[in-house]
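Lab notebook, design round three. We kept the backbone fixed and only want residue identities now. Task for the bench partner: fill in a sequence for the structure below.
Input structure tokens:
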């Protein structure tokens, strides 16, 4: 056991916890504990603890606050119908956390420590998984540069933490198709940049584009590639799929500017299992529009851990707008949402061993 357990001396009483879990929403209700682990050049990874969730005391010269050397992950623990608890593909998150660390010149957390930190926290706080339909415990592992130094260089000290947050169903009463704004002003990631790393900096620079989309009356922004401003890449925090009238599905390839989503990868596997034609190929905004108008393209959806699968109903840019299919959730989209959530809840066979039980 690499994480010493120090129980929270004053956990939230069960009745109060019950009240908070009735309608937790997303990202606001936190559990009683958190995991922490430190890294330094001389000691390596050390001081692993599961302890009471509490504010941090940080020196204002901690380098993360100045140069944004930070990476994170997001994954969920589910309560299965048989009462047990399981994580969905945590090893995939561990591997991505390592590749994000490499890109940000940070130390790589061994996969076993990553998974152990999450399992230990879920075991401690599993009573915080809401009993409501679609409820889960969202885990947020992250790593920050904690060295107190204003010089520009990779830090010599880091702090790894895991938070657990109770989450309700993203889709009360079924998935609602969203409307997208295509940003022709801002890009998310450039070749050679950090688009494939899960770092806070990518989000910081995407917020203005998302704000622009909201101001114009849309739900989410979709980004084009930074070089030609032509190829569809992804949303601020979700990958994108296209469904064609021949039954084939397509998603942009992982060229280094797109975040390699684990939901994206899971959908590709399910689609290949089902014998669908799967293409990982570039798709341009002009083709998306023409194909939606001709009927060759029948559905589009976004995907990620938080919402799993999100149907796209409408798309607009500076001088165009178009509707996808009927503008509502399509059949293939609904089928992927259903088959993925069935595996995550232990209601369907799990041929790829994606579920990892938490003892
Ligand atoms: C996390 C993330 C995704 C989705 O990844 P999942 O592993 O499926 O949750 C997609 N795009 C961006 C930019 C992300 O940060």
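Proposed sequence:
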């Amino acid at each position: 056991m690499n994480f010493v357990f120090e129980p929270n001396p004053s956990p939230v009483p069960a009745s109060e916890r019950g009240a908070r879990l009735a309608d937790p929403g997303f990202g606001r209700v936190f559990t009683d504990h958190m995991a922490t682990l430190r890294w330094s050049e001389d000691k390596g990874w050390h001081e692993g603890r599961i302890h009471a969730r509490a504010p941090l005391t940080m020196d204002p010269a901690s380098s993360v606050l100045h140069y944004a050397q930070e990476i994170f992950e997001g994954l969920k623990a589910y309560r299965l119908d048989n009462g047990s608890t399981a994580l969905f593909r945590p090893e995939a998150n561990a591997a991505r956390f390592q590749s994000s660390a490499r890109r940000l010149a940070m130390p790589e957390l061994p996969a076993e420590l990553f998974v152990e930190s999450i399992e230990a926290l879920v075991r401690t706080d599993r009573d915080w998984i809401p009993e409501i339909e679609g409820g889960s415990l969202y885990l947020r592992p992250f790593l920050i540069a904690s060295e107190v130094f204003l010089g520009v260089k990779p830090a010599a000290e880091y702090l790894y933490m895991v938070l657990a947050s109770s989450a309700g169903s993203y889709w009360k009463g079924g998935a609602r198709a969203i409307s997208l704004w295509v940003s022709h002003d801002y890009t998310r990631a450039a070749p050679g940049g950090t688009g494939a790393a899960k770092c806070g900096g990518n989000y910081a620079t995407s917020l203005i584009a998302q704000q622009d989309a909201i101001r114009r009356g849309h739900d989410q922004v979709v980004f084009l590639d930074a070089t030609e401003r032509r190829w569809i890449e992804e949303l601020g925090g979700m990958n994108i799929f296209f469904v064609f009238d021949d039954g084939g599905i397509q998603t942009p390839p992982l060229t280094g500017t797109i975040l390699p989503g684990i939901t994206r990868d899971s959908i590709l596997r399910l689609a290949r299992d089902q014998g669908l034609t799967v293409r990982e190929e570039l798709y341009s905004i002009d083709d998306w529009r023409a194909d939606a108008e001709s009927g060759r393209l029948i559905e589009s959806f976004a995907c990620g851990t938080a919402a799993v699968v999100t149907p796209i109903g409408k798309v607009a840019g500076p001088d165009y707008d178009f509707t996808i299919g009927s503008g509502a959730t399509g059949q293939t989209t609904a089928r992927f949402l259903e088959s993925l959530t069935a595996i995550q809840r232990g209601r369907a066979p799990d041929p790829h061993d994606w579920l990892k039980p938490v003892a």
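Keep this in mind before ordering anything: The chain has two domains: 4-167, 178-344.
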